[in-house]
Design goal:
Number of helices of chain A: 0
Strand content of chain B: over 45%
Largest sheet of chain A: 6 strands, mixed
Number of strands of chain B: 11
Low-confidence stretches of chain B: none
Low-confidence stretches of chain A: none
Radius of gyration of chain A: 14 Å
Distance between the termini of chain B: 36 Å
Order of helices and strands of chain B: EEEEEEEEEEE
Number of strands of chain A: 11
Helix content of chain B: under 10%
Mean pLDDT of chain A: 92
Shape of chain B: globular
Structural class of chain B: mainly beta
Oligomer: heterodimer
Helix content of chain A: under 10%
């Protein structure tokens, strides 16, 4: 079983729609969580961190459920520019002081007119 | 700072040849990661270093792959001999400390023919 699992999509949604992505992780020792965005043929970039209390950044809301080992990302009022692949990222510290960042395979979003 | 710098950006080589990929992390960052990305498998963590010391190389697919970090400002990933199935985009990323954002280089697109 992969350490981080995501639905690969693609999710095809019209502009203005609300879309949600889910991610599950298998290692309960995971400590911190992120969503990254990757545009076609580009490097991944941080979208937002995910906190236990949930957090919001404009149209984006991220939530974490530690009991179910589940992370979500909600995008409201989708824009064409949101079209990208969204990567779920889990961080743990197996060596004590060094981060081990594990990425999901990503969920592709295509926003259309 | 110029960000994480990888070279070369593109590499085409013949099967059996040695390939060396290079990475310069952001100054002051203490962890460095090498990832490989393919359509089929997504972003796979190959190896990561903390304070120049390899922490976990369990993701390195075979003995043909090796990585070094001789100092805080330079790392290499070597494939010898290369095979067509090694064709992928190889990313290097660096991170300052636990729970902080990982910055990626632009990647090296490797094609082995």
């Amino acid at each position: 079983r992969k350490e981080v699992e995501q639905d690969p999509g693609p999710f095809n949604v019209p502009e203005g729609a609300t879309v949600a992505f889910n991610c599950t992780y298998s290692n309960s020792a995971s400590q911190s969580f992120f969503w990254y965005r990757q545009d076609c043929r580009k490097e991944p970039k941080l979208l937002m961190s995910v906190y236990s209390s949930g957090n919001e950044d404009g149209r984006f809301t991220a939530q974490l459920n530690r009991a179910s080992q589940y992370i979500s990302l909600l995008i409201r009022d989708s824009k064409l520019s949101d079209s990208a692949t969204y990567l779920c990222v889990v961080n743990r510290y197996p060596a004590g002081t060094a981060s081990k960042l594990t990425f999901g395979t990503g969920t592709r979003l295509q926003v259309t007119l | 700072d110029a960000g994480v710098i990888q070279s070369p950006r593109h590499e085409v080589t013949e099967m059996g040849q040695e390939v060396t990929l290079r990475c310069k992390p952001i100054s002051g960052h203490n962890s460095l990661f090498w990832y490989r990305q393919t359509m089929m498998r997504g972003l796979e963590l190959l190896i990561y270093f903390n304070n120049n010391v390899p922490i976990d190389d369990s993701g390195m697919p075979e003995d043909r792959f090796s990585a070094k970090m001789p100092n805080a400002s330079f790392s290499t990933l070597k494939i010898q001999p290369s095979e067509p199935r090694d064709s992928a985009v190889y990313f290097c990323a660096s991170i300052y400390y636990l729970n902080t954002e990982a910055f990626f280089g632009q990647g090296t697109r490797l094609t082995v023919v």
